[in-house]
């Protein structure tokens, strides 16, 4: 089993590679090599019993796709992306990375497939996002609801979902797009995702530091832990995708909570002192981006296919404490 | 009012330009110039009281977009496309024309907008298709149902719809995507669209010629006449698009009918002799493409915005007889 991970230096990419090293196998087959690619050189996961190749490659560079696919990985875990806030502020960069570079990766797979006489057809697992949905929507969004993004990031993710369905239908690869919930609690430091504050209002107070809340407490989010997100990728890599039919995009399970409920969970686990470290400071640009995101799904298809996430925000905080918490220095 | 029409030599493009010539105005403003572009030089419409520039430009050529947008048209009617059957048989050509060339057109508008200091922001009306939908679907598809194409053509149309929403949200242009029903009765000769037989089984018998029916008579389609399709474009060019909000794709009204009901309408208008000219000859590739297309919509949003089509198949045949019928040579 040869695996390619793009965006391997990102938060989920690192955790995913650590999990591959711990498991030593994927989809029931022993891992031979993992090729880790990111715009900065990813660190090899500790304790891996397989060969790792860590490369600093900018996916936006035209030559990257061919280099990434040359070894014909059996599984491609494509996480590399410009995040929501940056794709909104830099139109060209967002499309160049999130759309064009992804398409070049798909075309590189197609060329290798043609060179192999059709024998090469990897599994491709793509990090999509619930940002493909946009208001107005019903209180709960089901698996048949329309995709109508309100950000360039969401548009780029939705476009790649369409490409994945078409390339899969044509048997160029066997692809699946996972619409990730908002991933919380992210370990620090913050990236440029507009949703970063959903994590920092938990993470920072638990380490004795102040955090800024830029939106009203009524804001509702659909969330899952980084550990659950890694689980989605591993499950998708092993799943029989014929069970999905032609619809290769799946909204991942998550937990629906409000910022207010997040804060009460923080109070139960971290006490009043932690809650007092949250400072309200309205930020219209963050609020404008995340307020168009949906907060509640009926992720029935994914659940029926065995994808699973946390069922309370307390549980999500506990996963953070177990996996990532850095205690405050006394 | 300066107008650009791409795909101007196609069936709907020609009828649209003829209508512009007859009206002399669009959206209540007199037309100064119409720039007609297609891969073969379009003919100027007869009797136009405005200047016409007819150019043979391949939209797939990198230089075409800048040439088409250089004169800063107020309205862009973008019809140029590789049709469904050809986009399915030629993967590269379909993406090159239906996606890449369209994106270059949008980027050319963006560059002119930047050069104008933001003053230039044209109306853009795009010919999308109900091929953006794919089975399985409910008996009637409403305006909130998911887009899930089952052809590369449908995927390309759906991707452009997402681009139109994003470019419009960013005020690069003021765009709308019209999901055209199957347009019948097309005047001959047949193009390479997989849906061509829906027209030929009416058109050919009415002129005393045999036509082939490649699918079962139970096949249901959502259809409108070429005259109605032209009306959609003119209405969209004049509409206040703020009324659409962020969702810039609209399923156009149409009439839901089966092939069997088409044939009965043909019998009422053309008699048994016409019906006897329909020859059943199963064609799996045509059937596979069109069987994934939906046959019934609740096109409520478009109707509320004033888009209108025929309300019976007899009416659709009568429009054909009035606008396009070439009687059989005795």
Please describe the topology of this protein:
2 copies of one chain form a homodimer.
Chain A: E1 2-6, H1 11-23, E2 25-26, E3 29-30, E4 33-38, E5 51-56, H2 64-69, E6 75-78, H3 84-89, H4 91-115, E7 123-129, H5 152-169, E8 174-180, E9 182-183, H6 197-206, E10 211-213, E11 220-224, H7 226-238, E12 249-251, E13 255-258, H8 259-275, E14 278-280, H9 284-291, H10 300-304, H11 313-323
Parallel strand pairs in A: 1-4, 1-6, 4-5, 6-7, 7-8, 8-12, 9-11, 10-14
Antiparallel strand pairs in A: 2-3, 11-13
Helix pairs in contact in A: 1-7, 4-5, 6-8, 8-11
Distinct helical segment count of chain A: 11
| N/C terminus separation of chain A | 46 Å
Low-confidence stretches of chain A: none
In CATH, what is the homologous superfamily of the domain at 2-180 and 225-251 in chain A? NAD(P)-binding Rossmann-like Domain
Strands of the widest sheet of chain A, in order across it, are 5-4-1-6-7-8-12
Number of strands of chain A: 14
Q: How helical, in percent, are the residues of chain A?
A: 40-55%
Q: What does the oligomeric state look like here?
A: homodimer
Strand content of chain A: 15-25%
CATH class of the domain at 2-180 and 225-251 in chain A: Alpha Beta
Which CATH architecture of the domain at 2-180 and 225-251 in chain A would you pick? 3-Layer(aba) Sandwich
Q: Give the ordered list of helices and strands of chain A.
A: EHEEEEHEHHEHEEHEEHEEHEHHH
Largest sheet of chain A: 7 strands, parallel
Task: Identify the biggest protein-protein contact and residues per side.
Answer: A-B, 22 and 22 residues
What do the pLDDT scores of chain A average to?
A: 95
**Overall morphology of chain A:** globular
Radius of gyration of chain A from CA coordinates: 19 Å
């Amino acid at each position: 089993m040869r695996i390619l991970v793009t965006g391997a230096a990102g938060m989920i990419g690192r955790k995913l590679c650590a999990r591959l090293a711990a498991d030593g196998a994927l989809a029931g087959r022993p891992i031979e090599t993992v090729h880790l690619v990111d715009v900065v050189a990813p660190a090899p996961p500790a304790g891996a019993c397989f060969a790792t190749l860590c490369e600093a490659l900018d996916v936006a560079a035209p030559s990257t796709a061919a280099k990434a696919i040359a070894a014909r990985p059996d599984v491609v875990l494509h996480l590399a992306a410009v995040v929501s806030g940056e794709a909104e502020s830099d139109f060209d960069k967002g499309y160049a990375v999130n759309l064009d570079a992804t398409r070049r990766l798909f075309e590189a797979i197609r060329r290798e497939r043609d060179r192999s006489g059709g024998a090469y057809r990897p599994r491709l697992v793509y990090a999509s996002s619930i940002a493909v949905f946009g208001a107005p929507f019903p209180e709960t969004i089901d698996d048949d609801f329309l995709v109508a993004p309100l950000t360039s990031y969401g548009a780029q993710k939705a476009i790649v979902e369409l490409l994945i369905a078409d390339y899969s239908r044509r048997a160029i690869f066997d692809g699946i797009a996972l619409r990730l919930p908002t991933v919380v609690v992210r370990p620090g430091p913050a990236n440029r995702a507009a949703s970063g504050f959903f994590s920092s209002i938990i993470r920072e107070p638990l380490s004795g530091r102040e955090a800024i809340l830029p939106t009203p407490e009524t804001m509702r989010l659909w969330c899952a832990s980084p550990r659950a997100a890694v689980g989605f990728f591993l499950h998708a890599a092993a799943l029989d995708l014929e069970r999905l039919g032609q619809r290769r995009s799946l909204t991942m399970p998550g937990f629906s909570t409000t910022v207010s409920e997040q804060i009460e969970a923080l109070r139960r686990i971290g006490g009043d002192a932690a809650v007092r470290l949250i400072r309200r400071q309205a930020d219209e640009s963050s609020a404008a981006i995340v307020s168009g995101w949906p907060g509640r799904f009926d992720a029935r298809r994914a659940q029926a296919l065995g994808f699973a996430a946390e069922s309370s925000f307390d549980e999500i905080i506990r996963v953070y404490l177990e996996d990532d918490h850095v205690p405050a220095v006394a």
